[in-house]
Design brief:
heterodimer, A: alpha/beta, Rossmann fold, 6 helices, 47% helix, globular, B: extended
Amino acid sequence: MRLYLDPSVLVKLFKSEPGSDTMVEMITAIDEGKGWAGFTSQWSALEVARALKKDGKPRELILLDLRELRRHRISFTQIRSDVLKVAEDVIVEHEIYASDALHAATFKSLEKPERLDAFLCDDAHFLKLGSILKTVTLDEVKFP
Amino acid sequence: MTTASVATKLTREENELLEKLAKEYGFLSKSEAIRSAIRLYLDLFSLEPKDRLRMLRLINELIAPSRKTVSELMEELHAEEEA
């Protein structure tokens, strides 16, 4: 599968809760290739950092976690002006947060050129975008 | 095995935390605690990616355990955004 990884699933790499083991398996599969690929926005690193900060993690640990995140074969997509324009349109058309709109717009920008299968998230807000995003949750991802 | 000595400066808060951790985890001294921490850090990066991810998650839980779920954290982020 070729997936867009929302911060709501990336943060699971650094916490123990349902779905955390699946995320480790998935990142390993992405590292190994074999039909798996992972994409996200550069903005995701900021959201992961802020979530870890809110979770009480100390500075050094957050830096270590972010460094680890970048050591894998996840593509961190640049925030371009055309993507921001699409994000604006998403906000105007839907009841959604700005950061979520940016992820939705980044996914749309990658969907065809990178042949993405779905938007992987654990955030109920994205259900509002069911008409424009094909979302999947960790429970729905199947490994061979 | 040849050895080398490396001196380092810590803030008062770091020193207090180190003393507390050394006592809590039964290290012989603060130096021993620092040696172990450095070896753990170096070993972490020599691990296979999958093991490294698992070990890092464990370190996160040990150093700063939290009862907040990722969903709750994401909601807090959204609340900040709204504010």
